[in-house]
């Protein structure tokens, strides 16, 4: 099966490519505009097309040239804060771009679509852990764009027979076991790489935004799922689509979560660095706990996580950051 991976040079997409390309029977083609991705993440021998999903002509050329049988979609703008400042950019890239991608799929009769969605579409949940059928009430444009796409997919199935799986999750983290690819954002906003930047001497301390939440140590508790485990879930979802020919959506979570202080302590143990922490005031809109349940994904998709502790996850991230202390391009 030939699979077009949109956003395949980005953080999550590249880990999916590395896993999928290693499985006999799959041929991978990457489409990425490299606005957030890195050409260094593209394995040797994998077809790469530098293009933007908002470019209809470029999409037509890619589909005509490569004739994929399935599409995996990772190339969304994904910063909650940025989406609040520039919501139209998010609707343009995440919704309009996806519409163009689906139109190309329909034109070239591609029926299988794996959508990298987000648990942000649940907003502030009433019940923890978040079940797959929890109410969807996004509280930011980013989450709303993902929910909009999920709605579009339902109508595409009715009209065109598109079969899809939406995978919803919070914090992708960690790095490939080789340390050759990992998380490299500019600017960086995610906790684990920020903590490790302290150990690398790139920042003096890690900021903790609030220590008076209703949690065991007063800091926010979040889901952390290893990026390779997420990649495996996307492959399992594609296998499910081909096998069952039935659309679905699944949450991918740890089921328990870790506090900010627990993540920092794990990083201290892994790196041997004291990693000073500074308590700052709360950020607006940060819920106490956000954890998703992955029971249905485990039962229906047969998904099994390989990385089950935050220390294991941080260790893989540290291996990557030691190999690339200034990021892929060496400028950070």
UniProtKB/TrEMBL annotation:
InterPro entries: Epimerase_deHydtase (IPR001509), NAD(P)-bd_dom_sf (IPR036291), UDP_G4E (IPR005886). The keyword Ribonucleoprotein does not apply. Its cofactor is NAD(+). It is an enzyme of class 5 (isomerase). Keywords: Carbohydrate metabolism, Isomerase, NAD. Pathway: Carbohydrate metabolism; galactose metabolism. Homodimer. This is UDP-glucose 4-epimerase.
